[in-house]
Task: inverse folding
């Protein structure tokens, strides 16, 4: 019981973090048709920027500054990179984001070195929040959930209650019509790409110290968020949300279970589970949980 | 007001328009007729900056070729797409809101004007546009573009597949548009409507203008009707 509760909470907080990453990826995909391989690199940049800022002026400013910086980089990438490459088609765009992911990783190597950096949970947030039976639940985990939920609500409000949100929703399906009505659609693309990057950056700020900040972190989480987008259904925010929680919980439970099957423990198999889920889903329900488009 | 000269348009390698010319004067209703696939939609999309093209499109004396579609819209050209291209997941009211180019300026049209013209839209103001009937969706695309306060509006096959009674309503809207000093470039299939409401007509064939004249010229010219319009 105790195990179940704690692991569920951990799974949800990890799942929410994954949603902060996958929401941007899926929005950018459905709006611009670009599968951004460098999306997880923005997550990594968020963590490193937060480390840098928090060692000089503290964690709280970092919480705001790092995502803004990452968002600005995202907008520059869209405006001066993707938009130019777009002319040469989707393959070129894909290769571009692929290259960008390597570029960012190398840049991180150069600036911060090849091993992990000491990005720690700030002292104000260190310690137990409450105790369930005998286990203590850390404040920081609660904080992560709070930030993620706040973000979730804000995305939803922006998309459904603001004019720019309506323009984004309409541009998802009818970009040409929206532009002919006088809306600057290229700028909307840039803002969404930047917004997605900023969200990923924020996930990096709160995830980097909960887990570990190292040059391999983008490559580790990148495939997982792709799985989420595919499982949820390409381009579906609701699908990405469900898949994030599902995979978040699945991963969290799996690594802590030592039941074994044919000599392999579930914990050992944990890293494979998301991919297994994706493969099965692609076979039995190719459009994903909530997706509308086939293939 | 609108002066198109030697307009050539391409989809990738295929050359669709071959030197189209036409003009629309202040407050005029002009129709562009022709069979399916002759390039009528392509003509107005090119004017709107939505298709790669060369030639000259002067609107109020200013060159539009080379401008992005949203800039052309801001110059005062409105475009009503064919196929009832509404935003299906948004409500009727939200669709109308997206027709406005800015939240500050208010043009000659308000939501209320639209609701007065089409009471059906008022009843359904907060429903998802995707569940409206075909006729209601057509009204909505028209109204949505008018909310952006264009000075000239290009309308692509507004009456296609509509019941006669709704066609009448839509024709009524054209009168209202004209009364407010807005010019119309209308793409139509139905010759009767075009003859009825327009001051001048153009007929297209194979990506070119093959006839221009008044409704009267057209009525008298059976050869053109037979060669370029009747199926
Ligand atoms: N996106 C596109 N890509 C390639 N070719 C196109 C595209 N859109 C239209 N065409 C071609 O251009 C030609 C003109 O099309 P257009 O849509 O302008 O015709 P139209 O006169 O409006 O007829 P209708 O609306 O009745 O189909 C057609 O031969 C069509 O096949
Ligand atoms: Mg057409």
Result:
């Amino acid at each position: 019981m105790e195990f179940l509760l704690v692991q569920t909470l951990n799974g949800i907080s990890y799942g929410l973090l994954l949603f902060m990453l996958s929401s941007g990826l899926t929005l950018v995909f459905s709006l611009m048709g670009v599968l951004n391989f460098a999306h997880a690199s923005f997550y990594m940049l968020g963590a490193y920027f937060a480390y840098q800022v928090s060692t000089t002026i503290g964690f709280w400013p970092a919480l705001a500054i790092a995502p803004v910086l990452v968002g600005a980089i995202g907008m520059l990438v869209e405006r001066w990179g993707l938009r130019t490459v777009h002319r040469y088609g989707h393959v070129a765009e894909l290769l571009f984001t692929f290259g960008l992911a390597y570029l960012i990783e190398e840049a991180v190597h150069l600036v911060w070195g090849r091993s992990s950096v000491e990005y720690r949970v700030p002292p104000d947030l260190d310690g137990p929040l409450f105790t369930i039976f005998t286990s203590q639940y850390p404040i920081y985990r609660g904080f992560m959930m709070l930030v993620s939920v706040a973000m979730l609500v804000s995305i939803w409000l922006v998309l459904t209650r603001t004019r720019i949100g309506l323009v984004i929703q309409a541009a998802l399906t009818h970009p040409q019509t929206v532009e002919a009505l006088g809306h600057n659609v290229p700028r909307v693309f840039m803002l969404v790409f930047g917004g997605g990057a900023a969200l990923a950056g924020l996930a990096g700020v709160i995830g980097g110290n909960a887990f570990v900040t190292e040059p391999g972190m983008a490559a580790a989480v990148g495939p997982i968020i792709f799985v989420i987008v595919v499982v949820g259904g390409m381009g579906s925010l609701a699908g990405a949300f469900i898949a994030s929680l599902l995979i978040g919980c699945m991963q969290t439970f799996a690594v802590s279970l030592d039941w074994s099957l044919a000599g392999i423990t579930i914990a050992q198999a944990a890293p494979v589970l998301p991919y297994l889920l994706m493969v099965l889903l692609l076979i039995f329900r190719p459009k994903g949980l909530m997706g509308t488009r086939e293939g | 007001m609108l002066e198109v000269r030697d307009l050539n348009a391409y989809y990738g390698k295929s050359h669709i328009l071959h030197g189209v010319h036409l003009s629309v004067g202040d407050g005029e209703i002009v129709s562009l007729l022709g069979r399916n696939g002759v390039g009528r939609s392509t003509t107005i999309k090119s004017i709107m900056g939505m298709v790669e093209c060369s030639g000259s499109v002067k609107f109020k004396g200013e060159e539009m070729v080379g401008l992005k579609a949203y800039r052309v819209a801001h110059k005062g050209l409105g475009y009503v797409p064919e196929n009832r291209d509404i935003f299906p997941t948004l409500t009727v009211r939200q669709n109308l809101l997206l027709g406005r180019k800015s939240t500050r300026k208010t043009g000659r049209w308000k939501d209320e004007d639209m609701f007065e013209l089409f009471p059906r839209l008022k009843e359904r103001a907060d429903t998802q546009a995707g569940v409206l009937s075909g006729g209601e969706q057509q009204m909505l695309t028209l109204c949505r573009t008018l909310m952006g306060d264009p000075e000239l509006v290009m309308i692509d096959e507004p009456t296609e597949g509509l019941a006669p009674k709704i066609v009448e309503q839509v024709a009524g809207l054209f009168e209202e548009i004209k009364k407010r000093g807005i010019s119309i470039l209308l793409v139509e299939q139905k010759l009767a409507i075009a003859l009825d409401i327009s001051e001048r007509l153009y007929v297209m064939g194979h990506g070119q203008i093959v006839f221009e004249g008044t409704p009267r010229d057209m009525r008298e010219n059976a050869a053109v009707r037979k060669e370029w319009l009747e199926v």
